[in-house]
Amino acid sequence: MTCIRLTLEYDGTDFAGWQVQPNGRTVQEELERALSRLLKEEVRVHASGRTDAGVHAREQVVHFHTGKKLPLKAYVEGLRALLPRDLAVVGASEAGEGFHARFSARGKWYRYRILRTGVPHPLQARYCWQLAGPLEVADMRRAAERFVGEHDFAAFCAAGSDVRTTVRRIDACELREDGDLLLFDVRGSGFLRNMVRIMVGTLVEIGQGKRQPESIDRLLASGRREDAGKTAPPQGLCLMRVFY
């Protein structure tokens, strides 16, 4: 059996998330169906992590095992006609022994996009959180810096998450302005369910003057989800890269 590693890109707008579920179209379901047709055998894929409904990916990584011997380009070119327009395989390679898309990952990079304009922009609506009114970006930057390091992010985790620990390490947390766009980039060892979106929702409240930058320290200490900001909408979030 050969372990194949694939890199995926997808627009998450019309997906009910990554993981197969009884009701709802998912990335995993579409990919496994296409691979099974290509290889003429049942295929089960494993991802670096689960993206939620509406969340996008520029470089999601998955792996699977197969006994078939196909040239690697077949997974890129051959799947092109078998996958929907909002999902594509953009890279394929043979993985080393013991590789696992999730457990071998050393870190991830997410980007969240906020469009600061009072005028609706339909062409941006699928990929940004559109906000009217000013944001104090300097305060948001000071707050974002407080996420860097190893902390207990229980206050930034969706209720009901089944994880062994809510401690995570954030390596970099940056805000960059590009015209009306505000780009929030965060890189770390791993992320809890809705963690980045709750971080963004809290930072936006700081930018709106509803909280102070120092409140991040209290949230990390309290571990109470109800003390943090609201969960930012999914369409602004994109998994940019998985590090191995």
TrEMBL record:
<comment type="similarity">
    <text>Belongs to the tRNA pseudouridine synthase TruA family.</text>
</comment>
<keyword id="KW-0819">tRNA processing</keyword>
<comment type="function">
    <text>Formation of pseudouridine at positions 38, 39 and 40 in the anticodon stem and loop of transfer RNAs.</text>
</comment>
<dbReference type="GO" id="GO:0003723">
    <property type="term" value="F:RNA binding"/>
</dbReference>
<keyword id="KW-0413">Isomerase</keyword>
<dbReference type="Pfam" id="PF01416">
    <property type="entry name" value="PseudoU_synth_1"/>
</dbReference>
<dbReference type="InterPro" id="IPR020103">
    <property type="entry name" value="PsdUridine_synth_cat_dom_sf"/>
</dbReference>
<dbReference type="InterPro" id="IPR001406">
    <property type="entry name" value="PsdUridine_synth_TruA"/>
</dbReference>
<comment type="subunit">
    <text>Homodimer.</text>
</comment>
<dbReference type="GO" id="GO:0031119">
    <property type="term" value="P:tRNA pseudouridine synthesis"/>
</dbReference>
<feature type="active site" description="Nucleophile">
    <location>
        <position position="52"/>
    </location>
</feature>
<feature type="domain" description="Pseudouridine synthase I TruA alpha/beta">
    <location>
        <begin position="143"/>
        <end position="244"/>
    </location>
</feature>
<dbReference type="InterPro" id="IPR020097">
    <property type="entry name" value="PsdUridine_synth_TruA_a/b_dom"/>
</dbReference>
<feature type="domain" description="Pseudouridine synthase I TruA alpha/beta">
    <location>
        <begin position="9"/>
        <end position="103"/>
    </location>
</feature>
<protein>
    <recommendedName>
        <fullName>tRNA pseudouridine synthase A</fullName>
        <ecNumber>5.4.99.12</ecNumber>
    </recommendedName>
</protein>
<feature type="binding site">
    <location>
        <position position="110"/>
    </location>
    <ligand>
        <name>substrate</name>
    </ligand>
</feature>
<dbReference type="InterPro" id="IPR020094">
    <property type="entry name" value="TruA/RsuA/RluB/E/F_N"/>
</dbReference>
<dbReference type="GO" id="GO:0160147">
    <property type="term" value="F:tRNA pseudouridine(38-40) synthase activity"/>
</dbReference>
<dbReference type="InterPro" id="IPR020095">
    <property type="entry name" value="PsdUridine_synth_TruA_C"/>
</dbReference>
